[in-house]
Specification:
Length: 424
């Protein structure tokens, strides 16, 4: 493990004091959740980079690791020890992208060929799992951009970073026409949602301008290959990449490629990603295939439709977002559940009827209604299941029944919500 920067210890103490006075049931856990990632999941590697496990799974997801340390970026401007850690995480992420941009989770090195899943796909010992997810490639761009914006430090934009950005663009471009893609994935054990149909290549799709994703952020397979929330995240990530490229790689083609892709994906979302609901009006679909099929739902994990303002794709007040929000927070969303202690969004990835803490926290992060936020805080306090941490999912009638007691992303996102509310 690593030494915890003093700035984080100080912020954790301040957060605890603040919430102990205003919401003691959550004040008693907020410090532990704030520090959970840095205390338990960040490991220094021999090359000076950092490896971030998810918690109870001993592997580094590109998406999860960016979310786990993302809260800490706002405290890094004047703290060299925290800068070293965050730059170490970014370095690992871009190194992993260069190893394989189709992989979603990695091992710290290639010393153990038996570590991780042994699926039918193109594997190397560096890879823990090779489920291709668009958001996996967006997350490092978000983290890098945010780090530069908040610290003004540009030394993270190395040649390796540039090479990784080029690989991200190439994959996004290739997957606009997935029929020409080399990617395939077959898993011969576990639930059907863990493997791609169509002999491992996914269900058929038509060209839309959007970029194809094999799997959702829950790591379940997509039914229809154009995952709208992930394409929204890609639009925002490409905006960030083009700004970075203009500043640090002006002689490269990165910015031109990123802006072209951003335009094509955004137009694809607008043309293919909307549906008309008789009760809620124009809403965003969760997935489409460009052949006339749509999946109207939302999944608990982010990027999600609920998270649209959090991703930066549209403001909270956007009319279509508000329509979509009402839809996915209603029983018309097949993964919206209600129970004695909570109501919110779950996932086909976890037991039916279980609600995710991440989705409740995201609902609060994207709300402008103080009463709604207060109600969510109470639901969080009521569903800890006898622990002092967030979980992946829980039974809203019996919160002591839950999945993943050590899920660092949920803890960090909760701490982010509490820190944001303190600052408002």
């Amino acid at each position: 493990m690593i030494d915890i920067p003093e700035v984080l210890l100080k912020q954790a103490d301040e957060l605890e004091r603040y919430w102990n006075q205003r919401f003691p049931a959550l004040g008693k856990i907020v410090k532990g959740c704030f520090l959970n990632t840095i205390e338990t999941t960040v490991h220094a590697l021999p090359d000076g980079s950092c490896f971030v496990i998810t918690g109870d799974i001993d592997a580094m997801w590109l998406r999860d690791s960016a979310a786990q340390v993302g809260l800490y970026v706002r405290f890094a401007k004047d703290d060299a020890s925290l800068q070293k850690i965050l730059e170490g995480v970014i370095a690992s992420q871009m190194r992993f992208v260069n190893i394989d941009p189709y992989a979603n989770a990695f091992n710290p090195d290639d010393s153990d060929p038996d570590r991780g899943w042994k699926d039918e796909t193109d594997l190397t010992p560096h890879i823990w799992e090779r489920k291709y997810e668009v958001d996996s490639l967006c997350a490092p761009l978000y983290l890098s951009y945010d780090y530069y914006q908040k610290t003004g430090i540009g030394r993270i934009f190395t040649e390796e970073w540039k090479n990784a950005a080029e690989k991200i663009l190439t994959v996004f471009e290739t997957e606009q026409r997935h029929a020409d893609s080399p990617y395939f994935f077959r898993r011969h054990v576990g639930p059907e949602s863990d493997t791609l149909p169509g002999d491992g290549y996914g269900n058929p799709v038509g060209y839309t301008g959007m970029t194809w994703s094999g799997f959702r952020p829950s790591d379940d397979r997509c039914i229809y290959g154009y995952l709208i929330p992930s394409n929204m995240m890609a639009v925002c990530a490409l905006q960030k990449l083009s700004e970075i490229a203009d500043r640090f790689y002006p002689e490269s083609s990165l910015s031109v490629r990123a802006r072209k892709l951003e335009k094509e994906i955004r137009e694809g979302i607008e043309k293919y990603g909307l549906a008309e609901d008789p009760d809620f009006g124009a809403i965003y679909a969760y997935e489409v295939d460009g052949l006339g099929h749509r999946n109207l739902m939302d999944d608990a994990n982010s990027p999600s439709l609920l998270a649209i303002p959090y991703l930066g794709f549209a403001p909270k007040e956007d009319a279509i977002y508000q329509n979509t929000r009402r839809f996915i927070l209603s029983r018309k969303n097949p993964y919206y559940y209600e129970g004695k202690y909570a109501r919110g969004i779950g996932s086909p990835h976890t037991p039916r009827g279980y609600i995710w803490h991440i989705s409740l926290i995201m609902q609060a992060l994207t709300s402008s209604d103080p009463d709604e936020i207060q109600g969510i805080l109470q639901m969080l306090a009521d569903t800890l299941g006898g622990t002092d941490f967030m979980h992946e999912s829980f039974n809203p009638d019996s919160p002591d029944r839950f999945t993943r007691s050590w899920f660092a992303w949920a803890n960090t996102l909760f701490a982010q919500l509490m820190d944001d509310l303190r600052r408002d």
